[in-house]
Amino acid sequence: MEDQAQSLRDMMRLNGKFNFSVDEKVQNSKTRFIAVSSGKGGVGKSNIAIGLALKYSELGKKVLILDADIGMANVNILLGVIPKYSIYHMIAQSRDIREVITKTEYNIDLLAGASGTMELLDLSDVDVNKFIKELLKIYEYDIVV
């Protein structure tokens, strides 16, 4: 039986058609990405991500939480913020990532998820490339969770 990670590796190998240029600032970026994931809902991914973000912020790092949960994005609720835009607006409406990021009182920035926006599950290669290009613009962050 194949594990989920192997399936993802296979998909990346077969569909690795990402065509984007990387400018020098991005290429020399020290930004670190930490993925908090699980195949099951309700196991505490959002709480772990927030905990990591808070700790890194306490250590003086500039932190962004990217809530990529399509089904139940709730980091904004847990942080007590009402974002004007979500990841959906960045992808579907071509808004710049800096426009979509919400500041919080905890010295953590948030790129809010888009609950129930199922069309994000069927992104074209062009849309995926566009999303990755936008993510690469955030080189000023130390940590992205």
TrEMBL record:
Any Pfam family: ParA
UniProt GO molecular function: ATP binding; ATP hydrolysis activity
GO cellular component labels: cytoplasmic side of plasma membrane; cytosol
InterPro entries membership: P-loop_NTPase, ParA/MinD_ATPase, YlxH/NBP35
GO biological process: negative regulation of cell division
Coiled coil: none
Membrane-spanning ranges: none
Keyword annotations from UniProtKB, A to Z: ATP-binding, Nucleotide-binding
SUPFAM superfamilies: P-loop containing nucleoside triphosphate hydrolases
Protein name per Swiss-Prot or TrEMBL: ATP-binding protein
Species per Swiss-Prot/TrEMBL record: Borrelia bissettiae
